[in-house]
Design a protein that fits this description.
The chain is mainly α and 91 residues long. Helix content is 66%, strand content 0%. The longest helix is centred in the last third of the chain and has 26 residues, at 64-89. The chain is globular and about 35 Å long.
């Protein structure tokens, strides 16, 4: 994942998704990506500014799908934050 750059665009995220799944991005997933990319990119900007980061955490009572989705969003936010933080620290 070192080739991923932040802030990430919708087009780049969709292209990566299509490469991973081998399927075109559906309209439903496109809508979801449009909602989550600002959250992911905000994490990048927090790291870039050297500010603390509050990770995404799923609620214990949510469905398995929602928990897995929240964990994947948490992964992306953590990755984006760490990339921003590395730039902030001059790495």
């Amino acid at each position: 994942m070192s080739e991923i750059t932040f802030p990430i665009t919708l087009g780049a995220f969709c292209k990566m998704s299509e490469q991973v799944t081998g399927e075109p991005v559906t309209d439903q997933w496109l809508e979801i990506y449009q909602m989550i990319l600002p959250v992911i990119n905000d994490s990048y900007y927090l790291g870039l500014a050297g500010k603390p980061h509050d990770p995404v955490k799923p609620n214990a009572g949510t469905s398995d799908f929602v928990q897995r989705f929240a964990l994947s969003l948490e992964y992306w936010c953590n990755l984006a934050y760490s990339r921003g933080r590395q730039q902030y620290m001059g790495y």
